[in-house]
Design brief:
The complex is a heterodimer of chains A (114) and B (114).
Chain A lengths: L3 E4 L2 E5 L4 E7 L6 E7 L6 E7 L4 E4 L2 E6 L4 E6 L8 E11 L2 E6 L3 E6 L1
Parallel strand pairs in A: 2-11
Antiparallel strand pairs in A: 1-3, 3-8, 4-5, 4-9, 6-7, 7-8, 9-10, 9-11
Chain B lengths: L3 E4 L2 E4 L5 E7 L5 E7 L5 E8 L2 E5 L6 E7 L2 E6 L8 E8 L8 E3 L3 E5 L1
Parallel strand pairs in B: 2-11
Antiparallel strand pairs in B: 1-3, 3-8, 4-5, 4-9, 5-6, 7-8, 9-10, 9-11
The chains are: A mainly beta (114), B mainly beta (114).
């Protein structure tokens, strides 16, 4: 099955600085890589995703890059704001036992210091 | 309108009791899931149902029994609750069970077994 590693586990940045979270995956057949943001007391919310036919995708201050050869993908948040503080999860959809399922990284707690 | 809703949001119960968590989605999706998030925030899939049929059943004690009366509902029943069952349980849904499908999560049910 798929295995997703995520680093760092915690990240503190000053407001206005950039934050980068990195993930690696094991299943070379995986083609879909979503990123979720989880605020305190809430469920994970999809913020951006990337499919294997592109190398980079941007949405305002958030961007994701994918290197299929190296099997890693990263989340970049620019001009961070206090409301970006949350736990971020990367994920990959791998196939195991004939079915597709989301496998999550262990999460990164991002703190943006005003 | 809440896309994926779970009830209750909080559940405190004694060891040995039986409890249920309900989940409903109004997105018209075919696939629903239950995830468990432990104290370290690790998200792990428990079950997946596609059109009311069980697709994924990870290594979960058989005290946990999902039930899907129709494709908009996936309930989780837990028998003989143990201290180690304390966690946050998330319901999620996706359009289908394909290799690049987006998953939408509910707000979670925090289960505390005392």
């Amino acid at each position: 099955g798929e295995n997703v590693e995520q680093h760092p586990s915690t990240l503190s940045v000053q407001e206005g600085d950039s934050a980068v979270i990195k993930c690696t995956y094991s299943d070379s057949a995986s083609n879909y890589f979503p990123w979720y943001k989880q605020e305190l007391g809430k469920g994970p919310q999809l913020i951006i995703d990337i499919r294997s036919n592109v190398g980079e995708k941007k949405d305002q201050r958030i961007a994701v890059t994918l290197n299929k050869t190296a099997k890693h993908f990263s989340l970049h948040i620019t001009e961070t704001q206090p409301e970006d503080s949350a736990v971020y999860f990367c994920a990959a959809i791998g196939s195991g036992a004939g079915s597709y399922q989301l496998t999550f990284g262990k999460g990164t707690k991002l703190s943006v210091i005003p | 309108d809440t896309a994926v809703s779970q009830t209750p949001k909080y559940l405190v119960t004694q060891m040995g009791n039986d409890k249920s968590i309900k989940c409903e989605q109004n997105l018209g999706h075919d696939t629903m899931y239950w995830y468990k998030q432990d104290s370290k925030k690790f998200l792990k899939i428990m079950f997946s149902y596609n059109n009311k049929e069980l697709i994924i059943n990870e290594t979960v004690p058989n005290r946990f029994s999902p039930k899907s009366p129709d494709k908009a509902h996936l309930n989780l029943h837990i028998n003989s609750l143990e201290l180690g069952d304390s966690a946050v349980y998330f319901c999620a849904s996706s359009q289908d069970q394909g290799p690049d499908t987006e998953a939408f999560f509910g707000q979670g049910t925090r289960l505390t077994v005392v």
